[in-house]
Design a protein that fits this description.
heterodimer; A: about 110 residues; four-stranded antiparallel beta sheet; 11 strands; about 0% helix; globular; B: about 120 residues; mainly beta; six-stranded mixed beta sheet
């Protein structure tokens, strides 16, 4: 089937605004991950879902970041009161067997 | 805490030649996975090759092979017969085998340029 999809591809917002980033995993994959990739760096882990629950949110930088996966498939990463330092590519990955993660194309977030 | 280091910010190779990308990692664990991912300008991370630490045999996938040195904590990627389509960022990643989240820890990447 289709791979991991993420929308929007690019998002430009103003400092202080609220944004939502969406991830649609590969069908049947129970594990879902969010990573953040700053310019010139490797991706950094944010949060991991197993089914509907956030099994590990230790990578979320602060309480402005929140993610949900209410039905165990699509996930939304929510960022409140955006700051310029939040500008990055946000990558989503999914997995069925916990060994190999398949990534989406990412959402490039720019905070002006 | 586990760390992954890629000391080559950029590498260049002539088309059809062979290139090796370096990766070292630090961990106190004995059971883990190592990965190489390719990230072209499209941004999508593509799995190139995977190595399980308990396997002594080096993984290979067509033109891609690794040199896994567990005692030295080294995991290099060799690309043979380089093609123009191999040009991309390459990231080395580590994951504990048994973990609460199975999260990947990435290095900072190596940009591979392929000269025609």
């Amino acid at each position: 089937g289709a791979g991991v999809s993420q929308t929007p591809s690019n998002k430009v917002t103003e400092k202080g605004k609220y944004v939502e980033l969406r991830c649609d995993p590969i069908s049947g994959h129970t594990a879902l991950y969010w990573y953040r990739q700053s310019l010139g760096q490797g991706p950094e882990f944010l949060i991991y879902f197993q089914g509907t629950g956030a099994a590990d949110d230790s990578g979320l930088p602060n309480d402005r970041f929140f993610a949900v996966r209410p039905e165990g498939s699509v996930s939304t990463l929510k960022i409140q009161r955006t700051e310029r330092g939040d500008s990055a590519v946000y990558l989503c990955a999914s997995s069925s067997d916990r060994s190999t993660q398949y990534f989406g194309p990412g959402t490039r977030l720019t905070v002006l | 805490a586990q760390t992954v280091t890629q000391s080559q910010p950029e590498m260049s190779v002539q088309e059809a030649e062979t290139v090796t990308l370096s990766c070292t990692y630090d961990t106190s664990e004995s059971d883990y996975y190592l990965f190489w991912y390719k990230q072209p300008p499209s941004r999508q991370m593509i799995l190139v090759i995977r190595q399980e630490a308990y396997k002594q045999q080096n993984a290979t996938e067509n033109r891609f092979s690794v040199n896994f040195q567990k005692a030295a904590k080294s995991f290099s990627l060799k690309i043979s017969d380089s093609q123009l389509g191999d040009a991309a960022m390459y990231f080395c990643a580590y994951r504990r085998r048994m973990d609460s989240s199975y999260k990947l820890i990435f290095g900072s990447g190596t940009r591979l340029l392929v000269r025609p």
